[in-house]
């Protein structure tokens, strides 16, 4: 019972903090981490430990699946080279660089233990960075590269992590065996994810009831992650690939299914991310207690050294990948010219660490050498990158003058003109097919002709001017819908209609309002 009350309390805190973050104009992940830190220091609050299994089995699969589902496969393919350089190359280089420094500063770790620490802190978590980019707007390619990196880098880091733990247990390490195991785990994860994604896609096509379809999507991440982990391959990659496959079924779903799924998944991802960031902050007390046996100053120096190294390594790698590789290989430079230096700086400053790093540190066996120090270093790295870089990232973006490289309003207006033309062409065909419904077809034709004229007349205008007429029309239509809704509630209150009829009317009005905003 106490655990249920605790979860409900954390959910209430997450909602309150999200409202506060919006009013302060700050990214919600940072606000939630800082609030968790404050709550963790309150006397009398029970110790709240973030169990690694909860992260890997409850939080990670749906977040990764949703990331794969929302990712544009076309953009992913177009930016495959920079994504691979970050998600594979940078993670490996970072793990090795941290291992060298950690081994020099803490010899008791040994090489295997040092590589474990390197694997733990190497993968950035792009959730906070994405929250910042959504508010400020940056070139689409920057967002695509960071999203693609975040979908794969966890798998790379966890494979290194497990290989280093195995080497520590066995006392030997084989580079050939580790490289072969890396490929097998990666390819196996892709295969499992593809099979599960295909099955989910077929199931969604046959699930005509929205409740069933949404339930299938909620189970899909675990259907991909768990079998992959049982087979010894990457569950992270499996969840991502399953989400990418399932996206292909999205356009074949009914409108009410899509509306329901969007609402459910938006709520779920918000809750999971919120709980994760609050729980990160709440670990402060346990981390401080664990490192009490060592000088806090010495531990802080080691942790800050590792954090500084992570920032430097990322910047150096990003510059090499963006400029040196193109300079050395003219074919790459011709196909993909040098990127703006502002975008390179933003990508370099976006290496925010998150829950995967903390969960990996907490999952270490209790007899792991210097386990308490590793946990402390990981926690400090998360705070320095997530809070420090996260709070300054908006300032960096504004100082560099970055802006979206495409005019979204312009693109949307053009697309609406084209889709309106297609609708009008179809209406002309329907006039011959349904001659007995000319009144309805004429109404629809007038609506689409007006909408198309609106977007053509205002094409290229400033957003405020171009959207003013549409906003006024929306207000009129919303007022009519609200009148219908008020009348329905009045009929229900007077006992003329029952709950079922009210729900049916309310659902139709909600759908009309959603279509109006689409």
In short:
The protein is mainly α. 81% of the residues lie in helices and 0% in strands.
Describe what you observe in this structure.
- The longest helix has 33 residues.
- Helix 6 packs antiparallel against helix 17, helix 8 crosses helix 9 and helix 9 packs antiparallel against helix 10.
- This protein is mostly helical and 518 residues long.
- It has 3 domains: 352 residues, Na+/H+ antiporter like fold (Up-down Bundle); 54 residues; 44 residues, no CATH class.
- Helix content is 81%, strand content 0%.
Unreliable runs? none
> Helix/strand-derived class?
mainly alpha
Question: What is the CATH level 1 assignment of the largest domain?
Answer: Mainly Alpha
Gyration radius over CA = 26 Å
Span between termini: 43 Å
- Helix content estimate: over 70%
List the main descriptive attributes of the protein structure presented here.
mainly alpha, 0% strand, 22 helices, Na+/H+ antiporter like fold, globular
Write the layout of secondary structure elements.
Elements: H1 2-24, H2 28-40, H3 52-70, H4 73-78, H5 80-105, H6 110-121, H7 127-136, H8 140-170, H9 175-206, H10 210-230, H11 235-247, H12 255-282, H13 284-290, H14 296-328, H15 330-335, H16 341-348, H17 355-362, H18 371-400, H19 408-433, H20 438-457, H21 463-493, H22 499-517
């Amino acid at each position: 019972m106490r655990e249920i009350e605790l979860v409900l309390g954390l959910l209430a805190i997450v909602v309150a903090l999200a409202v506060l973050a919006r009013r302060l104009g700050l990214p919600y992940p940072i606000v939630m981490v800082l609030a968790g830190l404050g709550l963790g220091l309150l006397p009398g609050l029970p110790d709240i430990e973030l169990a690694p299994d909860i992260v890997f089995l409850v939080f990670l699969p749906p977040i990764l699946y949703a990331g794969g589902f929302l990712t544009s496969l076309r953009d992913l393919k177009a930016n495959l080279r920079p994504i691979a350089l970050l998600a594979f190359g940078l993670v490996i280089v970072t793990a090795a660089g941290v291992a060298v420094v950690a081994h020099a500063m803490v010899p008791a770790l040994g090489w295997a233990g040092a590589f474990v620490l390197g694997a733990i802190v190497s993968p950035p978590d792009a959730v906070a960075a994405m929250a910042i980019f959504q508010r400020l707007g940056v070139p689409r390619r920057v967002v695509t590269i960071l999203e693609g990196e975040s979908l794969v880098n966890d798998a790379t880091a966890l494979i290194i992590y497990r290989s280093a733990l195995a080497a520590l247990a066995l006392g030997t390490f084989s580079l050939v065996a580790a490289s072969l195991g890396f490929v097998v785990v990666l390819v196996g994860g892709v295969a499992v994810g593809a099979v599960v994604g295909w099955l989910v896609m077929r199931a969604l096509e046959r699930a005509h009831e929205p409740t069933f379809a949404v339930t299938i999507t909620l189970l899909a991440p675990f259907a991909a992650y768990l079998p992959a982990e049982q087979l010894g391959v990457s569950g992270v990659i499996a969840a991502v690939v399953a989400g990418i496959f399932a996206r292909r079924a999205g356009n074949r779903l009914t409108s009410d299914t899509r509306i329901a799924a969007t609402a459910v998944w938006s709520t779920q991802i918000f809750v999971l991310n919120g709980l994760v960031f609050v729980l990160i902050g709440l670990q402060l007390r346990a981390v401080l207690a664990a490192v009490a046996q060592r000088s806090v100053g010495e531990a802080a120096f080691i942790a800050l050294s590792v954090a500084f190294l992570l920032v430097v390594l990322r910047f150096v790698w990003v510059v090499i990948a963006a400029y040196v590789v193109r300079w050395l290989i003219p074919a790459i430079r011709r196909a993909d010219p040098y990127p703006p230096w502002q975008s390179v700086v933003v990508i370099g400053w976006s290496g925010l660490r998150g829950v995967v790093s903390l969960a990996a540190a907490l999952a270490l066996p209790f007899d792991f050498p210097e386990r308490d120090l590793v946990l402390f270093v990981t926690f400090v790295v998360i705070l320095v990158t997530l809070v420090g870089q996260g709070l300054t990232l908006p300032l960096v973006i504004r100082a560099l003058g970055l802006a979206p490289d495409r005019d979204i309003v312009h693109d949307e207006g053009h697309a609406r003109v084209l889709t309106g033309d297609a609708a009008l062409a179809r209406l002309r065909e329907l006039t011959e097919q349904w001659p007995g419904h000319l009144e309805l077809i004429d109404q629809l034709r007038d609506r689409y002709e007006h909408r198309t004229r609106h977007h053509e007349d205002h094409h290229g205008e400033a957003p405020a001017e171009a959207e003013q007429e549409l906003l006024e029309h929306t207000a009129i239509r919303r007022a009519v819908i609200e009148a219908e809704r008020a009348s329905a509630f009045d009929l229900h209150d007077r006992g003329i209609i029952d709950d079922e009829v009210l729900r049916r009317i309310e659902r139709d009005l909600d759908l009309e309002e959603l279509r109006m905003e689409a």
